[in-house]
Design a protein that fits this description.
Elements lengths: L5 H14 L4 E4 H8 L14 E6 L7 H7 L3 E2 L1 H7 L3 E6 L3 E7 L1 E3 L3 E3 L13 H9 L6 H13 L2 E2 L6 E2 H8 L3 H20 L7 H17 L4 H9 L20
Parallel strand pairs: 2-5, 8-9
Antiparallel strand pairs: 1-2, 3-4, 4-5, 6-7
Helix pairs in contact: 2-5, 2-6, 5-6, 6-8, 6-9, 8-9
């Protein structure tokens, strides 16, 4: 999508979804770019391979119409096999579109039940951070998306242009595996903020916010299930590794 306008494409899709009574929000790098001006700076700037959106489960039967109205044709074979959880569309002009239905499942599963009204046209910053931070084998693209989010947004207790720690804890304090991967990711981001060139202007803010988020996650009350799984710890694998890139994509 080097010569395309993925942000414009994404916003157009959400506008069309709104008009079609479909609850949809942007995910991935496009959503990060909408929220974070830092994502457009030279150290952070990158191409976006596709557009990712999530819809609520009630909208599944209506999403084909919205996508086709925007010039995206369904991958019929893939959608017939996986259409209850994820759907894929293509456009010669606009590239690839991935649609996640109700949840994002990769190394861990992030449910969006009751969360899609938290922001518009993207998912909330906390949910955006979770979908990136749940990646066990974090690549540079996703790491820099996280760095951009943390550079531009404070930790707080609402979804109004801040990273809602209550949402982070609601997910991570119930499931030790998700908590462990997210904290591992935050360690990686912390290390990158300290060592990567070109981050001097953002370094202090990123490090302070990573430390604050880690502290809040550490002291949050944990569920009985979390505590039982924590006793096993890393002796048992706690994450899934995507085997089929078409089934479990790294988000654009």
């Amino acid at each position: 999508m080097d010569e395309r306008n993925p942000i414009g494409i994404g916003v157009k899709l959400i506008d069309a979804a709104d008009a079609g009574n479909v609850t949809a929000r942007l995910l991935g790098g496009v959503a990060v770019a909408i929220h974070s001006t830092t994502a457009g700076q030279p150290t952070f700037k990158r191409n976006y391979d596709d557009v990712d959106i999530v819809i609520d489960k009630r909208s599944r039967k209506r999403i084909d119409t919205v996508c086709m109205d925007c010039g995206f044709l369904p991958d019929t074979e893939f959608n017939n096999l996986h259409g209850l959880e994820r759907r894929t569309y293509y456009s010669e002009e606009n590239g690839k579109l991935d649609v996640f239905i109700g949840e994002f499942a990769m190394c861990h599963t992030i449910s969006f039940d009751g969360r899609l009204d938290a922001d518009h046209p993207t998912v909330s910053l906390a949910d955006l951070l979770l979908t990136k931070a749940q990646i066990y084998e974090l690549n540079r693209k996703d790491a820099f998306d996280l760095l951009a989010i943390l550079a531009d947004h404070p930790i707080g207790t609402s979804d109004d242009e801040m990273i809602n720690v209550e949402r982070i804890n609601a997910v991570c304090s119930k499931d030790w595996g998700t908590w462990r991967t997210v904290t591992k990711t935050l360690d990686t981001v912390d290390d990158m903020a300290r060592t990567e060139p070109g981050l001097e202007a953002q370094r202090d803010a990123i490090l302070a916010r990573v430390a604050e988020l880690r502290e809040e996650m550490e002291r949050a009350p944990k569920s009985a299930k979390w505590k039982m799984r924590a006793k096993v710890g890393e002796r048992k694998i706690w994450y899934e590794l995507p085997e089929d890139p078409d089934r479990h994509p790294t988000m654009a």
